[in-house]
C-alpha cells in the first residue's frame, strides 16, 4: 500500500518501511508521529479514500543540510553581506499506512539508538546534502578512505627501481667529461674598478 502525504509544503509518495527526509518536525529520535495530511492512498492501481487513511512514522534523527552561503553585493557602493544557512531536516521511517504495518515493526521498535543512528547514516549517504548530528557519518571517513586507496594504487603501479651500484673503472675511463656550465668567477680584487690607486 502507498500514500501521498504533504508535510513541510512538499508532497511525498511513501510506503510502509520507507525512509524519507522532510522539513523539521518537532520531536526526538524514537518518537512516533502521525502525518494527517494524506492526499492519496492506494494499492497497485486501486485508489482508496484518502480521508480515512492515516500515516504513522517514527523519527530516526534530526539532521542538517550542507551550508549554503548567501552573499549580497552592490557594485561600487562598498556593500557586501555574507550569511550562512543550514536547513534542518527530520528523517522519518514510515511504520504504518492505515491498517498496514511495515514488516518487522516489532523488531525495529526494540533497536538501540546506535542502530538508529546507523540507519540515519545510511539514509544520509543516499541523500548527499544531509548530515546527521550526533551520529558518526560515513561521509566524513570517505575522503580518508579514498586517499588511502589512491596511495595503495600508486604503490602497486610504480615499478621497483633497481639499486644503483657504483660505476666500474672501465665506465669511468670511457665516460666523456662533462663541461661546466657555470662561468669562472674573477679573483678577489681583480674586478675592473678595484685597480685604482
Keywords:
6-stranded antiparallel sheet, 4-stranded antiparallel sheet, alpha+beta, elongated
Low-confidence stretches: 105-111, 134-140
Q: Specify the number of helices.
A: 4
The residue-averaged pLDDT reads: 76
Quaternary class: single chain
SSE order: EEEEEEEEEHHEHH
How many domains? The number is 1
The major β-sheet equals: 6 strands, antiparallel
N-C termini distance: 110 Å
Task: State the total count of DSSP E strands.
Answer: 10
- What best-fitting shape do the alpha-carbon axes yield? elongated
Provide the β-strand percentage band. 35-45%
Alpha-beta classification? alpha+beta
The portion of residues assigned to helices is 10-25%
Query: Rg, please?
Result: 34 Å
Question: What features would you describe in this structure?
Answer:
The protein contains four helices and ten strands, in the order E-E-E-E-E-E-E-E-E-H-H-E-H-H. It has helices at 105-109, 113-126, 138-157, 169-174; strands at residues 2-7, 10-15, 19-23, 32-35, 38-43, 46-48, 55-74, 79-97, 100-101, 130-132. By secondary structure, it is α+β, with helices and mostly antiparallel strands. Strands 3, 4, 7, 8, 9 and 10 form a six-stranded antiparallel β-sheet that branches. It has a four-stranded antiparallel β-sheet with strand order 2-1-5-6, with no helix packed on it. It has one domain (2-155).
Q: Could you give a short description of this structure?
A:
With 197 residues, this protein is an alpha+beta fold.
Give the secondary structure arrangement, pairings included:
Elements: E1 2-7, E2 10-15, E3 19-23, E4 32-35, E5 38-43, E6 46-48, E7 55-74, E8 79-97, E9 100-101, H1 105-109, H2 113-126, E10 130-132, H3 138-157, H4 169-174
Antiparallel strand pairs: 1-2, 1-5, 3-8, 4-7, 5-6, 7-8, 7-10, 8-9
Amino acid at each position: 500500500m502507498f500514500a501521498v502525504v504533504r508535510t513541510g509544503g512538499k508532497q511525498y509518495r511513501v510506503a510502509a518501511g520507507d525512509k524519507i527526509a522532510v522539513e523539521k518536525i518537532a520531536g526526538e529520535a524514537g518518537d512516533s508521529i502521525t502525518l494527517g495530511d494524506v492526499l492519496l492512498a492506494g494499492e497497485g492501481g486501486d485508489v482508496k479514500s484518502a480521508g480515512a487513511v492515516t500515516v504513522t512514522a517514527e523519527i530516526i534523527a534530526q539532521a542538517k543540510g550542507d551550508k549554503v552561503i548567501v552573499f549580497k553585493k552592490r557594485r561600487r557602493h562598498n556593500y557586501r553581506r555574507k550569511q550562512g544557512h543550514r536547513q534542518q531536516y527530520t528523517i522519518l521511517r514510515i511504520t504504518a499506512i492505515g491498517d498496514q504495518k511495515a514488516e518487522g515493526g516489532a523488531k525495529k521498535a526494540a533497536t538501540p539508538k546506535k542502530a538508529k543512528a546507523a540507519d540515519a547514516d545510511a539514509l544520509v549517504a543516499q541523500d548527499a546534502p544531509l548530515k546527521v548530528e550526533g551520529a558518526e557519518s560515513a561521509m566524513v571517513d570517505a575522503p580518508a578512505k579514498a586517499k588511502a586507496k589512491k596511495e595503495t594504487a600508486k604503490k602497486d603501479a610504480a615499478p621497483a627501481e633497481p639499486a644503483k651500484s657504483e660505476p666500474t673503472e672501465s665506465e669511468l675511463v670511457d665516460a666523456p667529461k662533462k663541461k661546466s656550465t657555470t662561468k669562472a668567477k674573477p679573483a678577489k680584487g681583480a674586478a675592473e674598478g678595484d685597480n685604482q690607486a
